[in-house]
Amino acid sequence: MNVKVVFLTTLYLVITACSKQTTEAPSGIKPFGTLQELMLSVIDPNVDPIWNAVSTTVTKDGVEEKAPSTDAEWAVLRQHAIALIEAGNLLQIPDRQVAVTGASTSIHPVEKDPKAIEKLISENRADFALKAQGLQEATKIALVAIDEKNPDALLKAGEGIEKACEACHSAYWYPNDKRPVSWKPLGQAESGLFARLIKSADLS
C-alpha cells in the first residue's frame, strides 16, 4: 500500500513538473513585444515566402508555374522555415501582451478585443502552447520538403501551416464565429495573411 502511495505521489510530481515546463518560462526569459508585434514582425515575414514559393497563375497568355529552382532559393526558404519554427517558441513565453493599449487586432467582425483574447490565452496556457507547437510541427514538414527540394510537398505542407494558424486564431481570436472562414487559396502570390488578420497598430 505504501509503495502504491509513493508511486502515485511521484507520478503526480512528474506530471506537475511537466505542466509547469509547458506554461512557465525559465527564469530570466521575459517577453518584450506583443503577440501582434510578434506576428507582424517575425511570423508574417517568414511564413509568407513559404506560402508564396510555389504558385500557378493563369493569364491570357497561358499558365505560369512558379517554384524555387536554384539552391540559393531553397536555402532562403530554409532560413524562413527555421525562423518560423523558432517563432513557435516565442509564442509559448507566458505573460506576453496581445497588443498595445488601444490597438485593434483584426478586421474579423466577431473577434474578441485584445484584453479578452489575453484572458482566454492566460486561462488556457497549456492548450495555447500546444497550438504553437502545432505550428512548429507543421513547419517542420515544410522544412523536410525544402530539404528535399520538392515543390509539391512544400505546397501541401503550406496548407498544414495554414491550418495550424487557423486552429489558434479560431480558438482564441474569434472562438464564437460559427461561419466557415474563406482563405486565399495557397499558391496565389499575395503577402500578409497575418496582416489581413491583424491590423497593424500605430506604434509611433
Strand order of the largest sheet: 1-2
SSE pattern: HHEEHHHHH
Point out poorly predicted stretches: 3-15, 180-204
Largest sheet: 2 strands, antiparallel
Structural class: mainly alpha
Strand content: under 5%
Assembly context of the chains: single chain
Mean pLDDT: 80
CATH topology: Four Helix Bundle (Hemerythrin (Met), subunit A)
How many structural domains are formed by the residues? Answer: 1
Outline, from the CA principal axes?
A: globular
Count of individual beta strands: 2
Descriptive key words:
disordered N terminus; two-stranded antiparallel sheet; Four Helix Bundle (Hemerythrin (Met), subunit A); 204 residues; 7 helices; mainly alpha
Could you explain how this protein is built, in words?
The chain is mostly helical and about 200 residues long. It has one domain (about 30-195): Four Helix Bundle (Hemerythrin (Met), subunit A). Helices cover about 60% and strands about 5% of the residues. The chain is built from seven helices and two strands, in the order ααββααααα. The chain has a two-stranded antiparallel ribbon with strand order 1-2. The termini are far apart.
